[in-house]
Write a structure and sequence with these properties.
It contains ten helices and eight strands. The strands form two sheets. The chain has a five-stranded mixed beta sheet with strand order 4-5-6-7-8, with helices on both faces.
């Protein structure tokens, strides 16, 4: 859980940031500042220091009398060094808004996994830029909750891997037997606020109704296997009102089907919000 690493007494700010990025997948400086409470300039300096774990002490700027060949060689070595630094932290600059997004490279992932005592990194590869909007949407949910909560409110965020771990643990506790993880829903995240918990889904309006229906039914079939204590509400957040209404309509239709089927003895609790609306419910 991210919150366990923030201001951890055994690790430096740079080390904490590496693990936090590992947990989040990718994030902007603004999101990192909201989620961690670190100042933006502290995060900037940490990112620069981490990238400079990769050094080339022999690389020196050519003087004004340098030959074209020396200048070209310098620029090539600069580019190679930048690529090597991307192995620690990648700087992703999306064209649509210009805000830089940061994600770990292969060496950063391995370093974070070692800190978490994972023999093999559970995050198998670098975060895909194809899912950038999804990462941003999920992070913004956590950032809004962190900004708007009261000082004495305790929150704990579990990413998709940890949320699935929790589901597997709940199943074993409830049923006294193992379960194949592939049989369980894979939530986008799990958010615990004081003594309440929620499954979190961020929908960025890219999927057609059928995959959404399958995911909703997967929640029904998974949560049905648990006792009431672990049947937390599912909170869906989408980028605009039109999509929120579409999700509500999909669930309303599916809910009728679930309730008509006599084999189904449980209907999950689902709530739908447009970005920015969810904190009032989650913190209420």
């Amino acid at each position: 859980m991210i919150q366990a690493w923030i201001n951890h007494p055994s690790f430096t700010r740079d080390q904490q940031l590496i693990v936090i990025l590992y947990e989040l997948g990718m994030a902007t400086i603004e999101q990192l500042a909201d989620i961690t409470g670190f100042k933006k300039n502290q995060i900037n300096w940490s990112i620069k220091r981490i990238r400079q774990y990769e050094k080339d002490r022999s690389l020196k700027r050519p003087d004004k009398n340098a030959s074209p060949e020396e200048i070209a060689n310098y620029r090539q070595r600069q580019a190679e060094l930048s690529e090597a630094r991307d192995q620690w932290i990648r700087c992703i600059r999306p064209h649509h808004n210009g805000v830089t997004v940061y994600a770990l490279g292969k060496k950063g992932i391995r370093y974070a996994a070692d800190m978490k005592q994972e023999e093999q990194p559970r995050r198998k590869s670098e975060a895909s830029t194809g899912q950038l909007d999804h990462y941003m949407g999920l992070n913004n949910i956590l950032a809004r909750i962190t900004r708007e909560k009261s000082d004495d409110t305790i929150i704990q965020w579990s990413n998709t891997i940890e949320a699935l771990d929790n589901l597997e643990r709940y199943y074993i506790m409830n049923n006294q037997q193992e379960v194949e993880r592939i049989m369980l829903i894979r939530p986008d995240g799990q958010l615990a606020i004081d003594n309440r918990a929620f499954w979190i889904e961020y929908d960025n309006d890219t999927e057609r109704p059928k995959p959404i229906e399958r995911k909703m039914l997967a929640y029904q079939s998974t949560l049905e296997l648990l006792n009431d204590k672990h049947r937390f509400p599912v909170v869906w957040v989408s980028p605009h009102q039109k999509r929120t209404k579409e999700l509500q309509a999909i669930w309303k239709n599916l809910q009728r089907q679930i309730e008509r089927n006599r084999k189904n003895k449980f209907t999950p609790e689902m709530h739908f919000f447009t970005c920015g609306e969810e904190p009032e419910y989650l913190l209420g």
